[in-house]
Amino acid sequence: MSDPLKPDFARFRSRTFVISQENIDTDQIIPARFLTTTQCAGLGLNAFHDWRYDEAGHRRSGEPLNALDTAHQQVIVAGRNFGCGSSREHAAWALHDLGIRVVISSEIADIFSANASKNGILPIIAPKIAHHWLLEHDGVEIAINLETGRVDLGNGPSFQFQIEPFARRCLLDGTDPLGFLLSHDAQISAYEARTT
What is the pLDDT of residues 114-163, one digit of tens each? Predict the structure, then answer.
């Protein structure tokens, strides 16, 4: 597998981790009390905090998220309407810092989807048949090719997906919108020199 910080979305393979609950909002992904930082680093420790830890800060026994192994499971398959609620970008930061690189659901909130793609996470809307199959097959290895817009589920119902073209370009290049602009600094400077 490629560097987990800059996954090769042209040839991405990972096992899935299923969270079948519907309407997972951004406050569940990263509770508001952890929004005091402007840094991504360290937020993964508090991703899904109130599910993973009790009031004393101890890991909840039997909580599946405490068995998540992002060395092999970098794809969350979630129930319908993932990332709803507030627009906090920290939710995408927390998942990225946790080691998640792809979120698949039958419905993903628009603002979360935009924040995710700007922060190195590929949001994928799956058709209902494929989504249902994924929810029923926790831990299956899947292959994702962002260049072709295809998810191969092996024995399951493989499918095509769509993503906004600029977000697709940034994810394939392993950059964000600011990085994309900076990579064109010479062309921008040349244009400014010609037009001023």
Answer: 999 999 999 999 999 999 999 999 999 999 999 999 999 988 999 999 99
Q: Which domain holds residue 185?
A: 12-195
Measured at the alpha carbon of residue 151, what is the angle toward residues 147 and 156, in degrees to the nearest 5? 160
Does 140 fall in a domain?
Answer: yes
Determine which helix (DSSP H) or strand (DSSP E) holds 124, and give its type and residue range: strand 122-125
Tell me the C-alpha to C-alpha distance, in Å, between residue 44 and each of 23, 39, 60, 80, 181. 20, 11, 17, 23, 28
Question: Tokens 């909002």 correspond to what residue?
Answer: 25
- Enumerate helices (H) and strands (E) in the chain, giving the number of each: 8, 7
2 occurs within a structural domain? no
CA 102 to chain centre: 4
Domain count for the chain: 1
Residue 67 belongs to a domain: yes
